[in-house]
Amino acid sequence: MALSRGGMVAxxxxxxxxxxxxxxxAGAQPPGSVVRVPWALRxxxxxxxxxxxxxxxxxxxxxxxPGKLLLRSRRPELSQPxxxxxxxxxxxxxxxxxxxxxxxxxxxxxxxxxQEAAPALQAPPPDAGQDPTFAEMGLQPALLAGLEGxxxxxxxxxxxxxxxxxxxxxSALCAxxxxxxxxxxxxxxxxxxxxxxxxxxxxxxxxxxxxxxxxxxxSPRGLVVLPSRELAAQVGAVAAxxxxxxxxxxxxxxxxxxxxxxxxxxxxxxxxxxVLLGTPGALRxxxxxxxxxxxxxxxxxxxxxxxxxxxxxxxxxxxxxxxxPLAAGAAGPAGPREARTQVVVxxxxxxxxxxxxxxxxTDVTRFVTLTTQSLxxxxxxxxxxxxxxxxxxxxxxxxxxxxxxxxxxxAVLIFCNSASTVNWLGYxxxxxxxxxxxLQGQMSAAARAGIFASFQKGDVSVLVCTDLASRGLDTxxxxxxxxxxxxxxxxxxxxxxxxxxxxxSKARGAVVSFVTHRWDVDLVRKIETAxxxxxxxxxxxxxxxxxxxKGG
Length: 552
Hints:
Elements: E1 3-4, E2 9-11, H1 17-25, E3 36-38, H2 39-64, E4 69-73, E5 80-81, E6 108-111, H3 141-149, H4 157-167, E7 172-175, H5 182-196, E8 222-225, H6 229-243, E9 250-253, H7 259-267, E10 275-278, H8 280-288, E11 299-302, H9 305-308, H10 311-323, E12 342-347, H11 354-359, E13 368-371, E14 383-388, H12 394-404, E15 411-415, H13 419-431, E16 437-439, H14 445-448, H15 451-457, E17 462-465, E18 478-483, H16 490-497, E19 510-515, H17 518-533, H18 542-545
Parallel strand pairs: 7-12, 7-13, 8-10, 8-11, 9-10, 11-12, 14-19, 15-17, 15-18, 16-17, 18-19
Antiparallel strand pairs: 1-2, 2-3, 4-5, 4-6, 6-14
């Protein structure tokens, strides 16, 4: 082939006779002439041929070296075996690369489980030292008796990390993957602190029986702030089981009723509860009406921090923080020399403005950061399937999934992005005689009461819900999560997928996500890239690692 660099053209071989004759008849160039192609186009064609040969070579290598798959695609050439690694700066070929085109509908890929147990249950590596028991961590015997009542065995990864650090009294940001046992990770050391530093009844009416109208406000020594009444009830049950052998009292405070209801919750027998669990709105109302005082507060937990930092909770949360003795130089629960209230912020994901909010009331630079190795990573023990669908095909696909589910297949969570979709989908399931429950934030407190508890008991095995059910709730009976609406953020996806394969679950479970919108595809591409590279999801670490603003 003749090649002229100076003329920026290349000569191609002679055309076949039949094609040349056809072109000649049509007035094209006569046989024997050459077709000149621009130099840049020729280089582009060469690179395309090289990529095709390289892809064929990788496919041949994968075929020659069979093994278990990390990612299974409808198109076998895009599947990725476990042994194949993708470099940090390498751009992998994605199944979802063309999913914004309407012709991609019907395509899917599936992330296969790469390990049997949840990361939280894995023993520490040999070079990290021994795997301590709860007793070896120095917890009070009464708490160990409470753990036996809960049938809790050896500690999980986050518990091994957090309990020793929190027992030393440090305020902390504790971040761990969903379903890893964070509730016990913060309850055990803080209850241990209350038992190790017993405090007599305070002077004044707050120490009285709190039964009459003249009784003073409730003054707990421990406070746990939670974003929903369902989560408050769940954590309250665990805390009560731990506190019962120790003689400590636990009380819950949730809103949704008149102010008299708050007074009755706080003054219900037995009086003088040491630990209070409440939602932001109810706590703020109780503080404003002086049913509650935080002057004796010794420790405070903000559970599910990303939900608490939502716009609907931001103002009540700041008002609660302002009432607690957190600021440096303020008198502590036992006088000026008493250590400040210990603050523990817990979550699987942290919002961007967390440091700025806390910095208004306490010195965030003194907080210790506790994070697990699996934080912000896709759960490696859970099967996750992504299906590209048209919006009109989602309902038939969901009904098919529910009908094919075996009777012993465990519970099902169906996530929607809005309360209206939850209600609409519920009507459709009613028409198909599929027994289910609905849970969404626009329900009244009376309507929501007991719904999730009934689902946990197994009375009904299908729950249609919003992200209200994706934060912190114990869903160990769930074996299938369906993202009927794909979540709006990667944080929401992690919380939803964390409803299966939890500590205490009998099966690893599976997640099926319906992908319909173009903006859904953008998130799916990030998830697929992270799965192929075996890295954490992008943009999740900034809120933890970013230093707080001074004087904020």
